[in-house]
């Protein structure tokens, strides 16, 4: 009886333990951490609530990093303008004319256009450098005629230059009554200052109003600065057929080459040896009606007039007298015509070439005139 009761109690306990979820004594279960009780919330509802604010967030696997994109190809920065390095060879005929002028080989008014005086300037330079005398900007000349600095520069219109401009009278009497024969226009002034042809200045500055110039305006011009003399001439030689003048030192080095105008009438062209008697900067001029028989005004005046100094004086900015009465080497108010027109007998140079020549001469210097 006692054994039966014990067996019955064991069966009841076993059944009750399975209904209550008690683990089977022979089955091992994973250990579950205890969950703190929250007042008023049944334990079986805890899993449905969101985690408390201070609870660590459930870790989420981070997505793999994207594949590294190829670095973009960046072009090197380009300069805003071309930067030249000097010395360098001239890139054009204009640049060659500018560098020739800097070295004393003048082709007359710089214009960037091929012509006989530019050809002669090339030949003179080639001779001085012992190059083939082609008269052109050939490879050998280009390699030797190196630009030492920029061929063009910026020039600002100076109000003082504008104030000095003065209308030029068209009569001999009117010229004699002016205080000076100054530049009449800014174009004329800039052209002489930079050894340039007026047409070139217009091309370099197409938007500039030359008839109504403004002080402070910028201009692009040839970078020509009058250099100091390179010595003392031992002789000057004028070649009538080529219409060029050359000055050399005692060693035969060419100091100056430039175009020159000669007398219109062959009988007024002196040939042979002459000598310098006087050298005057900024001279005045004596108008003699007998020298200008074609002038109706001169015939009416019947007397001589003294014309004041200035770049528009008939002999320009320099007079170098010779030991033949009435003959000399001098400047001119029309430099772009030198070497292409004829004079009454004197040897006419551009004002800038006359200024270079006067620094080389001395009283007694021989001047040889070749046919």
Textual characterization of the structure:
There is one protein chain. This protein is of the alpha+beta class. Among the domains are: 84-150, Orthogonal Bundle (Muramoyl-pentapeptide Carboxypeptidase, domain 1), CATH 1.10.101; 235-282 and 317-370, L,D-transpeptidase catalytic domain-like (Beta Barrel). Helix content is 23%, strand content 15%. The chain has 10 helices and 12 strands. The chain has helices at 2-19, 93-102, 116-128, 139-144, 159-164, 172-176, 186-193, 198-204, 296-301, 351-358; strands at residues 152-156, 218-222, 235-239, 244-248, 254-259, 272-281, 285-287, 305-307, 318-322, 328-330, 347-348, 366-370. The strands form 3 sheets. The protein has an 8-stranded mixed sheet, sandwiched between helices. A two-stranded antiparallel ribbon has the order 1-2. The longest helix has 18 residues, at 2-19. It starts with a helix and ends with a strand. 30% of the residues are buried.
- Please, how many helices? 10
Order of helices and strands: HHHHEHHHHEEEEEEHEEEEHE
Weakly predicted, low-confidence segments: 1-62, 71-81
Cα-based radius of gyration, to the nearest Å: 49 Å
What structural category do the secondary elements indicate? alpha+beta
Helix content: 10-25%
CATH topology of the domain at 235-282 and 317-370: L,D-transpeptidase catalytic domain-like
| Basic shape | globular
Q: What is the overall pLDDT average?
A: 83
CATH superfamily of the domain at 235-282 and 317-370: L,D-transpeptidase catalytic domain-like
Largest sheet: 8 strands, mixed
Strand content: 15-25%
What is the count of β-strands? 12
CATH architecture of the domain at 235-282 and 317-370: Beta Barrel
């Amino acid at each position: 009886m006692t054994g039966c009761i014990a067996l019955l109690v064991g069966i009841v306990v076993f059944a009750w333990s399975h209904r209550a979820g008690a683990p089977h004594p022979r089955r091992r279960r994973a250990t579950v951490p205890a969950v703190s009780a929250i007042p008023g919330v049944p334990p079986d509802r805890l899993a449905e609530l969101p985690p408390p604010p201070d609870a660590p967030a459930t870790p989420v696997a981070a997505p793999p990093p994207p594949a590294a994109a190829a670095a973009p190809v960046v072009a090197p920065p380009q300069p805003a303008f071309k930067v030249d390095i000097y010395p360098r060879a001239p890139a054009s005929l204009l640049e060659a004319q500018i560098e020739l002028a800097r070295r004393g080989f003048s082709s007359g008014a710089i214009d960037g256009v091929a012509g006989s005086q530019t050809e002669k300037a090339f030949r003179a330079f080639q001779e001085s450098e012992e190059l083939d005398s082609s008269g052109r900007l050939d490879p050998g000349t280009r390699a030797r005629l190196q630009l030492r600095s920029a061929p063009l520069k910026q020039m600002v219109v100076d109000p003082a230059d504008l104030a000095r401009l003065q209308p030029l009278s068209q009569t001999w009497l009117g010229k004699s009554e002016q205080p000076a024969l100054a530049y009449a226009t800014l174009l004329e002034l800039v052209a002489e200052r930079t050894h340039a042809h007026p047409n070139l200045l217009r091309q370099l500055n197409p938007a500039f109003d030359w008839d109504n110039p403004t002080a402070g305006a910028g201009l692009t011009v040839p970078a020509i600065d009058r250099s100091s003399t390179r010595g003392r001439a031992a002789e000057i030689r004028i070649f009538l057929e080529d219409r060029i003048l050359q000055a050399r030192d005692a060693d035969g080095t060419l100091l100056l080459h430039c175009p020159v105008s000669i007398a219109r009438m062959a009988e007024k062209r002196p040939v042979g040896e002459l000598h310098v008697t006087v050298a005057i900067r900024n001279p005045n001029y004596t108008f003699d009606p007998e020298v200008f028989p074609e002038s109706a005004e001169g015939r009416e005046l019947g007397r001589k007039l003294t014309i004041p100094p200035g770049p528009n004086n008939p002999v320009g900015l320099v007079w170098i007298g010779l030991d033949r009465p009435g003959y000399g080497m001098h400047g001119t108010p029309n430099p772009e015509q030198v070497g292409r027109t004829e004079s009454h007998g004197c040897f006419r140079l551009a004002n800038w070439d006359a200024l270079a020549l006067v620094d080389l001469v001395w009283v007694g210097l021989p001047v040889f005139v070749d046919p």
